Automatic annotation (TrEMBL):
PROSITE patterns: HTH_LYSR. Residues 13-70 form the HTH lysR-type domain. GO terms for cellular component: protein-DNA complex. One of its GO terms (molecular function) is DNA-binding transcription factor activity. CDD domains: PBP2_LTTR_substrate. Keywords: DNA-binding, Transcription, Transcription regulation. It comes from the Bacteria. This is DNA-binding transcriptional LysR family regulator. Belongs to the LysR transcriptional regulatory family. It comes from Deinococcus humi. Gene3D superfamilies: Periplasmic binding protein-like II (3.40.190.10), Winged helix-like DNA-binding domain superfamily/Winged helix DNA-binding domain (1.10.10.10). InterPro entries: LysR_HTH_N, LysR_subst-bd, WH-like_DNA-bd_sf, WH_DNA-bd_sf.
Length: 313
């Protein structure tokens, strides 16, 4: 490793070197990163090596989990993401609204990706064929927000009405429903019935479980004994066969399977959905256009799901 150098205008890192560092950190290895960037592993290694020469310290190290960033590398990669993103934003900002191009990375949780995004992707693709939209997994609580903050996503569909350092565009409020076997009938749901029922819920680590746990806690019901399943289809299958009841947002339930009854909860519970972007990037033409397409698409939704009147601006 070369000794530390005083950085001048002639010793600044290149965008290629920064992209190389980001790729290796994200992929967890040089081989995987080289394939992702469509370059040779030797050229990738050389780019990272030159960046380490400039910093005067190692940025990556090998571990049992593959190639990982050193503490200095973690600090450097955060700024590398910002620098690469800023360089790309120069080109995005100069685009005309009617001739957009590039790659747009959108993070979404499962139910939104299943029901909200497909018609938006079709309409957006027809209007802006030069933009490639890549979907990223944002199911884990807080994952979408973090992907946007780290520069790994341009937009994220999230639950909530606020997120630090992000600009949110409200979309809709999604109502939670009580779901039981059809044999239960349609009589109103009571708090006592919720307390006495076997609860079948989503995994404890996700935002849906946390919201339901808080709701039940306000009703004096302990959700700690609930059985959890990763897949909604498994949960609904268990409910259909009389093994318990569940609470789900309406959007996650569509289409309602046969053999189930869905009813309002004793006290309303909703999840506010929004699209999040970094404030200084929200006005970039591709990001602004996709956000507008998403908002416009909500007018086609039934049962008042697209009512945004109760959401903050």
């Amino acid at each position: 490793m070369a000794s530390s150098k005083s950085l001048t205008a002639h010793t600044q890192p290149t965008l290629a070197q920064l992209r190389a560092l980001i790729a290796v950190v994200d992929a967890g290895g040089f081989g995987e990163a080289a394939a992702e960037l469509n370059v040779s592993q030797s050229s990738l290694s050389e780019a990272v090596g030159k960046l380490e020469d400039l910093t005067g310290r190692p940025l990556l190290r090998r571990s049992a989990r593959g190639t990982v960033a050193t503490p200095a590398g973690l600090r450097a990669v955060a700024h590398a993401r910002a620098a690469v993103q800023a360089a790309g934003d120069v080109l995005l900002a100069a685009q005309d609204d009617g001739a957009l191009s590039g790659v747009l990375r959108v993070s979404s949780f499962r139910s939104a990706a299943t029901h909200l995004l497909p018609p938006v992707l079709v309409a957006f693709g027809r209007q802006h064929p030069g933009v490639v939209v890549r979907l990223l997994d944002g199911d884990r609580a807080g994952a979408g927000e973090q992907l946007v903050r780290s520069g790994q996503a341009d937009l994220a569909l999230i639950e909530g009405t606020s997120a630090a350092d992000l600009r949110l565009t409200p979309l809709l409020r999604d109502e939670y429903l009580f779901i039981a076997p059809q044999s239960r009938g349609t009589q109103p749901v009571t708090v006592q019935e919720l307390a006495d029922s076997t609860l079948l819920l989503s995994p404890r680590g996700d935002a849906c479980f946390q919201r339901i746990e808080t709701y039940l806690g306000r009703l004096g019901i302990d959700a700690s004994s609930a059985t959890t399943f990763d897949q909604d289809s498994v949960t609904l299958g268990m409910v259909r066969h009389g093994l318990g009841i569940t609470l789900m947002p309406r959007l996650a339930l569509l289409p309602v399977p046969d053999g189930l009854v869905t009813l309002p909860l004793p006290q309303p519970l909703t999840r506010p959905l929004a699209v999040a972007a970094l404030p200084h990037r929200a006005g970039l033409p591709p990001i602004r256009a996709f956000t507008a397409a998403l908002v416009d698409s909500l007018g086609a939704w039934p049962w008042g799901l697209s009512d945004r009147s109760a959401l903050p601006d």
